[in-house]
Structure formats: C-alpha cells, structure tokens
Protein: NHL repeat-containing protein
Amino acid sequence: MVGNLIIGSASHCYQVLEGWGQLPQDIKYGYTHGICVDDEDRVYVHHTGKEAIIVLDKDGRFLTSWGAEFEGGAHGFYLHRDADGVQYLYMTNTKRSILVKTTLTGEVLLEIGTPDRPDLYNADRRYIPTDVCIAPNGDIYVSDGYGQYYIHQYDAKGTYIRSWGGRGSEPGQLIEPHGISVNLRGTEPELYVADRRNHRIQVFTLDGKHKRFVDHDLDLPCNFYFFGDEVYIPDLNSRVTVLDREDRLITHLGEDQQAYKQQGWPNLPKSYFRPDKFSSPHGVCVDSQGNVYVAEWISDGRITKLVRQ
Structure:
C-alpha cells in the first residue's frame, strides 16, 4: 500500500493510501460503486461481487461481509441515523430494481420496488434506481437514474407520496439523475440531484420544486457526500470535486483528464493506473477525521483512502 504521495491543495492536502483495505483470499470485489462510514469510522463498501457489502475498520482490516442476495446489482448507498437514533443502510439495486433498508449487519427492514405508476413504467419502460437519500422528517427519495429519469418520494414506512422529473434539460427535467442527497447547509433542507448527463447539479425543494442549477466545475457528477460546510462529489470523468458552502470550487482531487478518454475505459490495463490519479470515481465518503475514501467503477474494484494532512 503506497503512502508517501501527497495530493490536493493548500487547504485540502491528503496522503494517498492506494489499494486500501485487506480482503480475505476468498473474497473479491466486483465493480465498487458506493462507500460510506458509520459513527465508529467503520467503512462499508457496496460492490457487485458475491457478497455485496464488505465492512472494514478504519485501518482497512476486514471485519465482515454480507448481502449475497444483492449480488450483481450494487449501486446507490446511503447511511443514515433515523429518528430512533439508530444508524441504517439504504441501498438501491439496479439488477432487482429495488430499494432496501437494512441494519448495519444486513437485516432487511424495508423493500420498495417499482413505483405503482403504470403511466411511467411497463414491460418496456423499466425502473432502475441508482441512489437514495433520507430527509430530516424520514421521507425517502429515490432517483431512477438508469430508467425513466424520475425522482420518487416515499414516507419513512415506504408509502408513495409523489414523483417528478422526466427526460429533458429544462428546469425540473433530468437526464440520468444518477445521485441524490439532502443538503442541510442552508436555512432549509434541499434535495441535490446529480443530473449527470446534463453535466450539472439540480437543486429541488423537498416537495420537488426546482430551485436552481449548479453547472460549473463538474464532469459527470455521480453523487454527493456532505461533510460540514463542504460537499464531495465523485466526477466519473476521473476526479473528485470538493465544493464549499456556496458550491464554489475548493479543489479537484486526483484529476486525470486522460483516463476517461482511453480506449476500454473504465477497465484499463493495470499498468495505466497511478496511485495519485483517479480513473472512474463513483462513490466517496469522509470519516470523522476528514479522511476521504473513494470507490471507483472498475470491474475488479478500486478503493483509495486519502488521509487528511
């Protein structure tokens, strides 16, 4: 594990720990999609391999794995402390077209399938959820990023409330709403949607009304991780973007403007990859110490830890 490289800017400087995390010989990553940390800085990796969730401690030691029933469909991943004070995992599965809520040890507590909207979904118009987030009141929001490009809202028990979106580039319309999260940095909660193929963030009220766009310093934004006044965004086109409270650029981490232009990307020859450069960031999270974890969309997985200096 390489640990002598430094990346970032004057205000955000990190030591690179490439190939972070030790897996048992009988466990292999599939495509690594999502990553999150709990209150103990345990790291949860969501990938498309045989057991979809791998849990590591803060030093990268393997703790456990589970989720065989989710093999092949890993995508959106969200850890949230609910009103009962307990942390839960919420995840979307593109293969099974479901959203599930589980305990941190894998007990399934809630499952939501295709919305009962025959005007939107049928045998030819699939629902393919790509991300999920939870509002302060417990409402659940799911982005149909690979299907019909809608956002769906449910209450905490999974009862359907409303939908909005649809394909397009006008305010309120979306093209590949890949990621979704709740912004709590302002005077009222907002929904941030990674409107990926429109190369922008679209901001909504919690009841689905368009508020504004953020359309600078982004290159295929995948999703969001809010940490204090900052937001960390994995740009699929080979970098992690960090924005401040006003969504102004602080820095790009590990930027490689050649990686996504290579033939065969994202599954490039291993000789291409460099510890201090990203190829296809898909998930990001930040632990209590400000260290950043990056999961990349690569067939056999890639996890990098950036240690805040």
